[in-house]
Amino acid sequence: MAYVNPSGEFTRDQRYIATRVTADGRDGYPVEPGRYRLVVSRACPWANRTIIVRRLLGLEDALSMGIAGPTHDPRSWTFDLDPGGRDPVLGIERLQEAFFARFPDYDKGITVPAIVDVPTGQVVTNDFAQITLDLSLEWSRYHREGAPQLYPEALRDEIDKVNRYVFADVNNGVYRAGFAGTQEAYDKAYHRLFDRLDWLSDRLSAQRYLVGDTITEADVRLFTTLVRFDPVYHGHFKCNRQKLSEMPVLWAYARDLFQTPGFGDTIDFVHIKRHYYVVHTDINPTQVVPAGPDLAGWLTEHGRAALGGRPFGDGTPPPPPRPEEVVPAGHGAA
User: What does UniProt give as GO cellular component (predicted)?
Assistant: First the structure.
């Protein structure tokens, strides 16, 4: 399966299923606890956002989660982590089956995260940018007591603005560098990425979080790229002006979030590295997965509390992850 665009710049296919699960059910899918299953892979940064938001908001009872393995073939993600290779709730081997159950001729990407309607076995949506916002806004009736406001109304315009920059230049920017097929396309993506990282460093040098004085959706979206930077993007995607650990402000900011309940405890570095280095065979044809980098630094003192801020605002940290959702021993930074 080829990812590099031999003619130049990588362009992400953003034709996602726009159906939404909403409180009023206007798209035919009302919020109902137990009805839907969130399918993720811990390897994927877009899916990682939903894992974090679901945990911060305490939606585990209302929205179950199926975890696909870290690799996939051209057909789709598989449930090879589960006994018998089948998701225990949906009963399927491949996420593709849920997409085809609703759209038999579906010809776009079979992507995670995806929300699946359990009674019908049909995919509802894979629109990752909208899913996390809807978890905050549409599922509010089922949030845990003390859940933070990740998308507060007074800050939405600024959050949206920051998110647009971060998506275009950082979240997707690392892919534009990694999948560039010409020197010109790579150089353009490389400089755009690091110019934005410098902008983010300046912004975060005097404030603890990206928007306001609490964790918001904007921090979740940046974090899932930063946490993959040194293990994958620096080498595999040639984003190598500096490592994250050599950018003092962003490194401290990322460690601050990593050490916050709901962030670092969702990160599976083994799955992350295995996905990128095994799946992208046109970049890494040997499929050799690197042993490094050393992850001990993620748990070192970051000093960001001196900037003030209240991580969860008037809310509280989430409880520890459920036993069945704990990252396997040896896969995290501890």
Answer: cytoplasm
Burial status of residue 183 (CB atoms within 10 A of its CB: 0-12, 13-18, 19 or more): exposed
Among residues 29, 36, 44, 209, which one is catalytic? 44
Domains and CATH numbers, the chain: 36-142 (3.40.30.10), 153-325 (1.20.1050.10)
Percent of the chain at pLDDT above 70? 99
Q: Position 176: which residue type?
A: R
Distance CA 58, CA 322 (A): 11
- The whole-angstrom separation of Cα 253 and Cα 12 is 28
Decide: residue 209, CB within 10 A, 0-12 exposed, 13-18 middle, 19+ buried: buried
Q: List, in order, residues 6 or more apart from 261 with CB less than 8 Å away.
A: 317, 318, 319, 320
Q: Burial of 233 by CB count in 10 Å (0-12 exposed, 13-18 middle, 19+ buried)?
A: buried
pLDDT band at 14 (very low <50, low <70, confident <90, very high): confident
Active site residue 142: no
Element (H, E) at 159: helix 156-166
How much of the chain is in helix, strand and coil states, percent to nearest 5?
40, 5, 50
Q: What is the mean pLDDT of residues 180-190?
A: 97
What pLDDT, in 10s, does the model give residues 238-271? 999 999 999 999 999 999 999 999 999 999 999 9
Largest CA distance in the chain: 55
Confidence band for 73, pLDDT divided at 50, 70 and 90: confident
The CA distance from 178 to 185, in Å, is 10
**C-alpha angle with apex 109: 56 to 182, nearest 5 degrees?**
105
User: Rounded mean pLDDT of the chain?
Assistant: 96
Catalytic one among 36, 151, 175, 186? 175
pTM tops 0.90: yes
